[in-house]
Structure formats: C-alpha cells, structure tokens
C-alpha cells in the first residue's frame, strides 16, 4: 500500500454557470469556479499558494486564445495576483487527472499548502470537431481523407469492434443514458438539469457516428469547475468534511499516435491505471461503494468498467442493467449525471463528485454509506487516470 | 449507396518518413513500413519498430487483402465537404500480410450497411490528384460464412 494514502484531501469545490454559448470570456467562468471552490473550503484567496490545470481545447480546427478558448496557469496568475503563490503547474499529456495528481505530489513534497485545480472548457462557434482543412497532415494524413475528424469517430470504430466481437447490442446503452440523465436531475449545476430524457428520445435521436447516437456524446458547453486540495492535516481544520485521497494511478500503456480502431489501447490503458490505484489503496473493485467513470462518449464507461475490473471483458453492457447503477444500486455510477448530463467539462467534475460522495456532501444524490469512492477521470485510451477517495483515513 | 462524386477529400501531405507509402500508392501498390530486424509490418509509420524497437525500417509491398477490423458509419455533416456521401462507411482494415497494422479507408461500391467486422475486403486505389492516390477498399468476392 501507498505510504501517502489519505495524506491529501479535497476540501472545496466550485462551479461556473454552464451554457452552450457564453456571454462572458472563458476566463470569467474559470474565475467564478475558482472563487467558488475557495469559498466552499472556507479559505481566503490569500491562502492559495498553488495553481494547477490542464488547459487544452479538445475541439479540432479552432484557435487557442488564452482567456477566451483556454485558461492557462499564466492567465489565472495574471487574474488572481496571489500574494502567497509558491507553486504552479500546467500539464499536457495526462489531462486534468494529471493536474490533480501533480498537485497532490506538490502538497506531499511541501512545495505549497493549498492548491486550486480548475478545468475550463470553451464551446467554439461552428463545428466542434472539424476535419483537416484542404490538407491532412501528420497522423491525420492516414485518416482525414476518409472522413475521420474528432475523437468521437475514432472511438466509434473501436466500439463497433467491441459490439460485434462480443455479440453485444448498442441498444443496451440506453440504460446508461437514462440512469445518468436521472442522476443529472439531482445536480443543479449540470447543463441538462431540468431536462429529462426518455427511452424514445434516445432511440429516436440522430446518429452521429454509428454506433454513437446524439445521446452517447457529451454536449459541448462553455463552463468551468474547480477544487481546493490540501494536506489531510490542514483539511481537518477547514469548513467542509474532507474527502481523503486514498490512491491514484495513471495509464502506463500507449500505442502509436494515429493508430485507430484498437480496443486493446483502451483496455490496457485502463487496466494499467487501475492496477496502480488498487495496489496503492489496498482496495479492490468489490470494495467500491460509488463510481464515477469518464463518459465523454458512452462507450468509455463500458471500457472503464471492464478494464478497471468491475466486470469481465465484454460484459459491461449487461452489468449496467437491472438497476445496478442507480443511486440505490449495487454500484451507483456517474451520480452527478456524468459529462452526458453536465456537458463537456472533462474529468475534473468526475473527481469533484468522487470527493463529494466520499465526504457525504452530495446532497439529494448522496449514496448511502459511500466510504470508498472510485473515479476514472478520463477515457483510458487517451489520458487515463484513476482515483480513490475515502470517507475516513485508514 | 454513398455518392462520392462531389466529395472533396482533405489531401494527405506526405512527410519525409511517410513519402514511400504515398509514392507506392501512386503506382497503385500498397507498401507498409517493415522492420528489417524482426520482419514486423506496421502502420501508421513510426520512428521505431513497435515490436523490437529497431530503427532499421523500410517500406515493402504487401498484398491488399484483409478483413474489416472495425468500422463506423458517418452521419455527421459538420464538415460540408463530406455531406453528399452520408451515411458512409469508414473502415479499419487489418491486412492478412501485416497482422496488427491497421489501415483506414472507406468501404466503396456497396451500401454502408455492408460494413461488418470480419468481412473480407481488398484494396483499390482512388486518384485524388497528380500527386496523391488514396488506398481504398471494396468487399472481396469471397466472404466467410456468417
């Protein structure tokens, strides 16, 4: 087991308004979320001495403009002018989960005392995932000419392989979409709060890239979320009950850039991250009381459930049936609605919910006796990171 | 069946490392990167052999028969250039001669509903301009029993 288990905690969460088309620049949303998280923790702005984010815009073919379409650490530093700042980090490859893990490491190393981690997401005007322009360069020279643009299409090909090799039906995914939208109704910050989804809505929705229909894809939005992280010792003196970080892991497998259609890339990515997380915490999937698994596209949840070890390979579409993933089920899943409910803000919201459930702060969607709270914070193929939060240190 | 006649595809831009692939396609031949140390074929091209990490890689001709490894049916018309062809099948092919190497293509000449994992396909070539010819796929005459 990891000697640093439960030495770090999440002690505050914050949200901006989430909308399809924003009336303020993204930096204003990030600021709203960051201020909210600090207020939730009971700290003052002057207590914050660490900043961490993953800023990239996953939309293709759009310019990145700091403060407008991304919010970098530089942008946040310029806005906050923190008097006590001692540490900051902006990560790339490991996605937002990596920003959280790096912040934990900085806190353990004593480089800072209270870190804010944020994720701000822009929804550019026009098509989100563009094909290459007139020319297809780099890895896209082998995919763009055939119509492959964004990650949804790349994930769709792996999904047909998954379905047809395992004799599974995409129709079973409706259970996930409906359960998550039901959970969304308990999350007032979510984009689809107040908008129910029916079985008919799912099956009548337009196909985007078969097997993905509209409701298998998270909706692009503009908004931001943030958390305050500190050491467990300091967290005990703060306003909210801490969520203890028992362990984390990261993907240790990657196939060649531009390789498309490989299911092994997801499965080995997810399994490698989860293995670290189980070993460091001493827990196994059967110990988990509530799980958040990244769902930018619905199939990511299926690959997550299998590669993290919650069920056998090829069986996740059956595993999610019969109420198992409801709030009172055996494994309540994406209890905040997931990205399919909140809109595309990436995995920091999954981490927030994992922490809220562990600390008993999830309100009307609180899962009873949520002592061990699991998070898969990003699609295992791209940037897989996994976390466990616990109610009590052990 | 998808109408490709008015679709303008993005034109591949070869690099120093991918040029042999496109030069071969222009000659209507399929050539993939092969490790000269262990014999492993790979695609897309990479700096090292993905099996043995050798840097001794050369492009060698391969036969164009294989199976559909995975596919998607594209419906989204965000990029208007492809709108006339939707819905169309974009497929990933594993060649018999190069297990593990995965090539993207469109399934041409049949309705998109013919795309299924495991179906047999063979390479054909679609000329885009004087410089670039695109490997594409059609269903093979002989199919496995389903």
Characterise this structure.
- The complex is a heterodimer of chains A (394) and B (146).
- With 394 residues, chain A is of the alpha/beta class.
- Chain A has a single domain (8-124, 219-390), classed as 3-Layer(aba) Sandwich (Peroxisomal Thiolase, Chain A, domain 1), CATH 3.40.47.10.
- Helices cover 31% and strands 16% of the residues of chain A.
- Chain A contains twelve helices and twelve strands.
- Chain A has helices at 26-41, 73-80, 95-108, 151-165, 174-184, 199-204, 232-235, 264-281, 299-307, 316-319, 338-342, 348-358, and strands at 8-15, 50-53, 87-90, 114-121, 135-136, 207-210, 212-213, 223-231, 243-250, 290-293, 372-376, 385-390.
- In chain A, helix 8 crosses helix 9 (299-307).
- The longest helix of chain A has 18 residues, at 264-281.
- Chain B is mainly β.
- Chain B has one domain (19-139).
- Chain B is 5% helix and 37% strand.
- Chain B contains one helix and nine strands.
- Chain B has one helix at residues 19-26, and strands at residues 11-12, 31-35, 41-42, 57-61, 65-74, 88-95, 102-108, 120-127, 133-139.
- A five-stranded mixed β-barrel of chain B has the order 5-6-7-9-8.
- The radius of gyration of chain B is 16 Å and the shape is globular.
- The two termini of chain B are 23 Å apart.
- The mean pLDDT of chain B is 95.
